[in-house]
């Protein structure tokens, strides 16, 4: 999982390095890399690639693709750490929408943790970058607009994760992964018809690195979840914020004010407390279940 978060940070840096290319174009090339790699993996596993639950699979692919567009736009036009912080709202949106979509309740304490994280995002915007190479982030209005795009991406990610949850046990995990580029590739291709800029020179290297980082991150993350308990490895995802701060400072001269750093800490605190609380509730439920079965 440590390697996975580092690889995802590398992907983020590649996307930001390609800020002069349209986001849909980056997604187009990334999707080509991903769809080939996923199809080869499915063939090796002997799994039919298109599955059976088409409606849910298409829902997962389309919401994931739209979320990716929003996230890449945020990455290109906001400081790395700000875009990553906005994306960390995705687990909160997943839980809140799960109340209606998968009938999973949200407990009272969780609403407090959610409020902490939302307040943190507001502080991140108020603190703002002191220095950044992204010209649009220097404008308060533009920065707020792209922060909104990042939050929208987190909301769409929440819809995508709920679709994945509904598919649990119904489809092979690699089929679910395969539908992401399967949907995003034609959507990005249509967008590229209206906005295309031919990559030049080192752009091709950054695009290749983006695809390689993404695929490697997905593989190592999946392996981590197979080898260890979810409650132990999932919180390591949030190390990505510190990677983003370091990469943004070293490569893009991004420096924040005290309010922004405080906001990032609040986002991490809210999401971390929610993860700890839910894992504790699950552990307590698992401990009580055998006793209830003995009584029965």
Low-pLDDT segments, ≥5 res: 131-138, 292-296
Largest sheet descriptor: 2 strands, antiparallel
- Average residue-wise pLDDT: 85
Percentage of β-strand residues: under 5%
In total, the number of strands is 2
CA distance, first residue to last residue = 40 Å
Strand arrangement, major sheet: 1-2
Helix fraction by DSSP (H/I, runs of at least 4) = over 70%
Question: Which key phrases capture this entry?
Answer:
296 residues; mainly alpha; globular; single chain; 2 strands; two-stranded antiparallel ribbon
Quick structural gist:
By secondary structure, the chain is mainly α.
Any overview of this molecule?
The chain has 296 residues and is mostly helical. It has one domain (2-295). Helices cover 79% and strands 2% of the residues. It has helices at 2-17, 23-45, 54-77, 80-87, 90-101, 108-127, 140-167, 173-194, 203-227, 230-233, 240-252, 258-295, and strands at 129-131, 255-256. It has a two-stranded antiparallel sheet. Helix 1 (2-17) runs parallel beside helix 11 (240-252). It is globular, with a radius of gyration of 20 Å. The model is unreliable at 131-138 and 292-296 (pLDDT under 50). Residues 1-124, 150-273 form the EamA domain. It comes from Hymenobacter jeongseonensis. The chain crosses the membrane at residues 23-42, 54-74, 80-102, 109-129, 141-164, 176-198, 204-221, 233-252, 258-277. It is a multi-pass membrane protein.
């Amino acid at each position: 999982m440590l390697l996975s978060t580092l690889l995802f940070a590398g992907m983020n840096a590649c996307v930001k390095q390609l800020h002069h290319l349209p986001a849909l174009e980056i997604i187009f090339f990334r999707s080509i890399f991903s769809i080939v790699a996923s199809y080869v993996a499915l063939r090796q596993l002997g799994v039919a690639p298109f599955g059976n639950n088409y409606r849910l699979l298409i829902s997962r692919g389309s919401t994931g693709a739209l979320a990716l567009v929003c996230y890449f736009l945020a990455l290109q036009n906001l400081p790395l750490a700000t875009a990553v912080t906005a994306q960390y709202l995705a687990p909160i949106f997943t839980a809140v929408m799960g109340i209606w979509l998968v009938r999973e309740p949200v407990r009272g304490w969780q609403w407090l943790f959610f409020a902490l994280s939302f307040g943190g995002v507001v502080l991140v915007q108020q603190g703002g970058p002191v220095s950044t190479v992204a010209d649009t982030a220097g404008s308060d209005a533009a920065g707020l607009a792209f922060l909104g795009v990042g939050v929208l991406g987190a909301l769409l990610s929440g819809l995508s994760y709920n679709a994945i949850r509904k598919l649990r046990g119904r489809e092979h995990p690699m089929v679910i992964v395969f539908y992401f580029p399967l949907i995003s590739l034609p959507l990005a291709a249509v967008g590229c018809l209206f906005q295309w800029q031919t990559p030049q020179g080192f752009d091709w290297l950054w695009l290749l690195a983006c695809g390689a980082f993404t695929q490697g991150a997905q593989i190592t993350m999946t392996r981590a979840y197979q080898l260890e308990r979810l409650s132990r490895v999932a919180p390591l995802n949030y190390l990505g914020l510190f990677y983003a701060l370091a990469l943004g400072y070293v490569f893009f001269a991004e420096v924040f004010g005290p309010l922004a750093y405080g906001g990032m800490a609040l986002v991490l605190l809210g999401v971390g407390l929610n993860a700890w609380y839910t894992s504790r509730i699950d552990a307590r439920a698992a401990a009580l279940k055998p006793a209830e079965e003995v009584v029965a």
